[in-house]
Design brief:
The complex is a heterodimer. Chain A has helices at about 5-20, 25-45, 60-85, 90-105, 110-130, 140-165, 170-190, 195-205, 205-230, 235, 240-260, 265-285, 290-320, 330-335, 335-350, 355-370, 375-400, 415-435, 435-450, and strands at about 50-55, 55-60. Chain A is mainly alpha-helical. In chain A, helix 13 (about 290-320) packs across helix 19 (about 435-450). In chain A, about 60% of the residues are buried. Chain B has 10 helices and no strands. The interface of A and B includes residues 55 and 119 of A.
Chain lengths: ~450, ~220
């Protein structure tokens, strides 16, 4: 059983609907978490290989294994956090279903099928983003629209790739493929200026769900991008494509940081910090070097953990304070010190502050950039400083004043389960920052197989 | 400035393809009118006409399948919209025109302003679609179908820009996807992809219906 990659998508796809039928029970979140973490072990222990199904083949390679493991780890932590602080009754079940579809997208190698399967995964994602909430539907609708808009561009890119492979003399296809891929992936990654759904979902959806969607869809998009470049070696020679990734990433990193510094609530901060960090990953990948790809991988890992950590902390806050606006956080740090610590560690990691996981990635990234590339470094610093400023203001707001009374006073102390999970995630974030070597060793094995990267 | 003859000459493609013209009109109706019964009927007409156009490019069986998927999409949206409208039947706008109210037509000052604006926007989009179709003609498809693709895609985008209401914006998204499909179906003949494309359309509709219901719940709660 452990040798067939099909199980990594069949089990979550079958488990999701079963858990959906049981969604009224809170323990479903725990079951989804256990299942998700079991899939990590399964993905990691699988020897890899291919399965052919009609016109498509599913392949599990080291890149897919690493991405799937990370996505399932993030899913597991998110579901576990949702067990302590519920994020919508259907989140664990439909979240697992979404992960199953995204696992299929990771293992598929043909871009057209990947794009269609990701679009299918966007549908359960819409259900969990909206939840049972009867409020504005703008966040979920924008997510659906932007994801769907990416689909035609990626399908066109796939078609043009096939044409180019059939007729390598026609150089016109090269530019068109790069253009379609660029627009398609920019939409998928929600890079500036297509980022509209990120702040909207951050504001409207439960924080755990928002972070889960940011993480899982970003990881799949990143894998699809790397696999496409790897499969089409001629694309690696297209400097314009890499330049576009670099510029798009820089603009997103800087914009996300500036917006994070200007907003005054934790949800918006989560969204813009996620945006800024996504920009950093693409800058690292856009450098086109092995060191840059290593930095992109490490940033993706630290970002995934940090977003899950911050979302868990914000979800905990929301239970005990009337809202997550800075003016409503007064004194919450004294009431919930460990949760505040977790929020701070996650925020500092996204900002790339020393000792955090994000710093190790930024350090590698700065080393990968050419000497004299002052603008990229300045833009990345701006993004990081903005996120750091945002979380510093959040800390200041949570330390100042007195705790506000809410209609539901809740327990006097921090809830043990949720807080333990937050502390564990914070420790992992700090451990990666202090000693990233084990993660880097795994990432190096993945990067070594990517032939399009220069030394 | 082109002469009248030149303009008529350029519009000759309308006569060449009455189906493409009817397709363009049906989409125009969706953009212009807010009434869900009219716009869903026009959406159904759009799927049927697009399917008929596709019979010239792909095997009729696959074109029929696409019409069936379109019919299912409209059925899902119809059931959702009907549920929503039941809760709104007694809504009256104070500025209703008396003559229109007597005739049971939802016409008032807001309606006229909105339809004028939408008509102008639609004209601009039509010109843009025509210009793009001339400058960047789609390969592998005849000119009228290429123009119809651009028209559907641009109209869908216009609808997405004009409204944040899930049902209407969802129709915009479906029109856009149908416009792309008109082109993509002619260049891609993989049966697996056709199947996945139909599934994506149906799932997309489910998401739109769900968001419409969520919006409807707000209306009900606010009453």
């Amino acid at each position: 059983m452990s040798g067939n990659p099909l199980f990594l998508l069949i089990l979550p796809l079958a488990g999701g609907p079963v858990l959906y039928l049981l969604r009224r029970w809170k323990v479903v979140a725990l079951l989804a978490a256990v299942a998700s973490l079991a899939f990590v072990v399964l993905a990691w222990q699988m020897p890899g290989g291919s399965v052919a199904l009609s016109e498509v083949s599913l392949t599990l390679d080291p890149l897919g294994q690493a991405t799937l493991s990370l996505a399932f780890i993030a899913g597991g932590f998110s579901f576990l956090a949702a067990w302590y602080v519920p994020q919508g009754r259907s989140f664990p079940a439909l979240g697992l279903l979404t992960l199953g579809l995204l696992a299929a997208a990771i293992m598929l190698k043909q871009l057209a099928f990947v794009a269609l399967v990701v679009e299918m995964a966007a549908v359960p994602a819409v259900f969990i983003l909206q939840g049972e909430r009867h409020g504005s539907t703008q966040g979920a609708l924008r997510f659906l629209v932007i994801t769907t808009l990416a689909l035609p561009f990626l399908l066109l890119a796939s078609w043009r790739i096939d044409l180019y492979v059939a007729n390598v003399d026609n150089a016109v296809y090269l530019g068109q493929v790069a253009l379609f891929l660029g627009i398609g992936f920019f939409l998928w990654f929600a890079l500036f200026p297509f980022h509209g759904w990120i702040p909207a979902t951050a504001a409207e959806s439960p924080p755990g769900v928002a972070a889960f969607i940011y993480n899982s869809f970003f990881l799949v998009g990143l894998t699809a991008l790397v696999q496409t470049i790897q499969a089409q070696s001629w694309l690696a020679d297209n400097q314009l494509f890499f330049r576009a990734l670099l510029v798009g990433g820089l603009m997103t990193a800087a914009f996300g940081g500036i917006a994070a510094a200007l907003h005054r609530n934790l949800s918006a901060l989560l969204g813009y910090a996620a945006l800024s960090s996504a920009g950093v990953v693409l800058v690292a990948l856009g450098s086109g070097t092995q060191l840059g790809a290593l930095a992109a991988g490490l940033e993706a890992v630290s970002r995934t953990l940090a977003l899950t950590l911050i979302a868990s902390a914000v979800a905990s806050f929301r239970r005990y304070v009337p809202g997550d606006g800075f003016d409503q956080l007064g004194g919450v740090a004294r009431k919930m010190p460990f949760t505040t610590f977790g929020l701070l560690v996650g925020g500092m990691s996204l900002a790339g502050i020393p000792l955090s996981a994000g710093f190790a990635a930024r350090w590698l990234l700065f080393r990968s950039l050419s000497v004299g590339d002052y603008w990229p470094i300045a833009a990345l610093f701006l993004g990081g400083a903005g996120v750091a400023l945002g979380y510093t203001r959040a800390l200041r707001a949570s330390l100042a004043g007195r705790p506000q009374e809410t209609g539901d006073p809740g327990p006097r102390r921090e809830p043990i389960g949720a807080t333990t999970l937050i502390v564990i995630m914070a420790i992992i974030c700090l451990a990666i920052g202090l000693y990233p070597q084990p993660i880097l060793t795994v990432l190096q094995q993945v990067v070594d197989r990517l032939s399009f990267l220069s030394n | 400035m082109p002469s009248l003859y030149e303009i008529l000459d350029k519009l000759a493609f309308l006569a060449m393809s009455p189906i493409a013209t009817a397709l363009a009109l049906s989409v125009g109706v969706i953009v212009l009118l807010r009434d869900w019964r009219v716009s869903l009927s026009a959406l159904l007409a759009q799927y049927i006409l697009a399917g008929l156009l596709l019979t010239r490019l792909i095997p009729p069986e696959i074109a029929t399948l696409k019409i069936l998927v379109g019919g299912l999409v409209c059925a899902i949206l119809y059931l959702t919209a009907r549920r929503m409208s039941t809760a709104r039947t007694d809504e009256q706008t104070p500025g209703d025109f008396v003559w229109a109210r007597k005739l049971g037509l939802p016409i008032n000052g807001d309606f006229l302003a909105s339809i004028t604006f939408r008509l102008l926007a639609l004209l601009l989009v039509g010109m843009a679609a025509y210009g793009v179709a001339q400058s960047y003609p789609l390969p592998e498809v005849p000119e009228p179908i290429g123009l119809a693709c651009y028209w559907l895609i641009f109209s869908g985008l216009l609808l997405l820009i004009l409204t944040g209401e899930p049902l209407k914006a969802g129709q915009g998204l479906l029109i856009l996807v149908a416009g792309f499909d008109l082109f993509y179906a002619s260049i891609e003949n993989s049966l697996t992809l056709v199947g996945l494309w139909g599934t994506v359309n149906l799932l997309l509709t489910l998401a739109i219906a769900y968001l419409t219901s969520a919006q409807h719940a707000i209306v009900e709660e606010g009453r």
